[in-house]
Amino acid sequence: MRRHLASLGLLLLLPSAAWANGKAFATQVPPDIPYQRALILHRDGVQTLVLQSRIETGGEDAGDLGWVVPVPEVPEVASLDAAAAEALFHNLKRRTAQRVLRPRQRVRMAVGNVVLVAAPGLGVALLVLAGRSAFGLWPRWPGPTRRSAWRICFGLGLIWIGFLVDMSSLSGRVRREVEVVFHRTFDLHEVSVLRTGTVDGILGWLDEHGFTAGPEDRAAFADYVDRGWVFVATRLRGPDSARQRSPDGLAAPLVLRFPAEAPVYPLALTGTGGHDSEVVVFMMSDAIHDAPGQIRLRFLDRVESGRLDPLRRAEPEGFFGEADLEFRYLHRFWDRFTAAQMADDIRFVPEPRLRPFKVGDDL
Fold first, then answer.
1. CATH number for position 47
2. Total Cβ atoms within 10 A of residue 294
3. What is the pTM for the complete model shown?
4. Is 160 a domain residue?
5. Predicted local distance difference test score (pLDDT) of residue 291
6. What are phi and psi of 261, to 5 degrees?
7. 96: domain range?
8. Rounded to the nearest 5 degrees, what angle is found at the Cα of 194, between the Cα atoms of 169 and 175?
9. Is residue 18 helix, strand or coil?
10. 89: burial class by Cβ within 10 Å (0-12, 13-18, 19+)?
């Protein structure tokens, strides 16, 4: 487990940006996320969320990519390659008409590692010097000077070792405040699901594992912690390929299934990235839903069978059964958001009075 978490911690050493439903990170250049799309499947108090975003890096190699997504309950997790996701959203589009860690953080982490490795040796060396001085092993020193030297070295040694013990205790407290509920390595993703009762706990864990959360993130994290939500920390694995990213820059999506009385699209943490974004949410359910005042409903109709067949390719195999792919209604929500407009999650409510309709070809 420690090895897995360490590899996740090596994920990101440069600035962060907004990602679909969470906070995104990359190892080389700050990504711009101008477009994000998702599929929500909801039935009988269970929601499945398929998340995907377009990543633009100005023609540069962004390196490893990862993100943190908040969800209401501990989820079941699956992975879907970019090609299957493209087929999935293409089907839906046709039917509906469609914290990078900053560079200075790398230096800070390297210096911190050197200090932690050297610190125990420094403490022991100071105590040894104190002993040599106390027992007269430096005969050339006058008595008063020798006594002063051992007292100084002895005091500094105790202070240094006490500091290390205190830091170790603090680190242990942070680890105990965050429970790693689930960790799994898929073919394309490495995922840790985290639960905590304090915002300092989650921010400490993220910082310890290479995710930089700035002051602008604290309020959003605190709100999710107060609501008892959990956090899914994820990175893409392996070399960049067509399975990881589609030709138009959409990354391989993560699939999360969790209890939810009503459908929800977690957006508040995304808004802390400071970027505008185009958001498309497809939803399939057995009831008609709307999100008045939050995101515009552009299409509503009965579902045609076969639209969700690409989900059969999700890892692990069998994550989606036959009953998971059949629903009565298909919705398409679409809007453009400023960062300020993404301050709250999108919550969908039943709206049985609506009838099938279509608004323009805006996608």
1. 2.60.250
2. 18
3. 0.70
4. no
5. 96
6. -60, -40
7. 2-104+176-358
8. 5
9. strand
10. buried
